[in-house]
Amino acid sequence: MMNGDQSPGSPIDLSDREQAVLMDPIDHVRARWIFPFLGHMGICMSNGVIRDFAGPYFVSEDLMAFGNPTKYWQLSPQKANNGQAGWDAAVAESSEIYKKRMHIIFYDNCHSHVATALNIMNYDGCKNWNMVKLALYMIPYSKYVSFGAFMKTWLPFFITVAFISGLAAII
Questions:
Q1: Residue 121 structural domain
Q2: Which residues are listed as membrane-spanning (predicted)?
Q3: What are the CA-CA distances from residue 69 to residues 8, 14, 21, 28 (Å)?
């Protein structure tokens, strides 16, 4: 896990985050200024390698598209069919599927890649994982890797709210 003195852009140790869903804010579109709870999503294999659908026909390995993860939702490999082996096989199969797909931001995206992996492994007896369900589950079940990661995610939103509140108070 990231130490408190590391910046959000520093490499982090995910050795204790195997079988986790990971998220980082999407900086280039400044979405986090308005929607800080949305972001780019990846999934960790049992060896800690991160897989994420980073763009058309490309699933990256251990290098998330928008930087280091700021949040993680720790999952249990025992809830996957065939345990750890089933988890890894499902993530690998989902990655192979998404290497052949066009990235469509509002339909077939990084969240869909993770949902497909969870559906293949029948995680927690569930086969109806989808991008909306994952985004919603990340809100209550995920943890930030550090205070700096929390600030990286939420500070732009707090600045936006303060600015709008200030304008409203003046007007």
A1: 20-164
A2: 153-170
A3: 8, 10, 10, 15
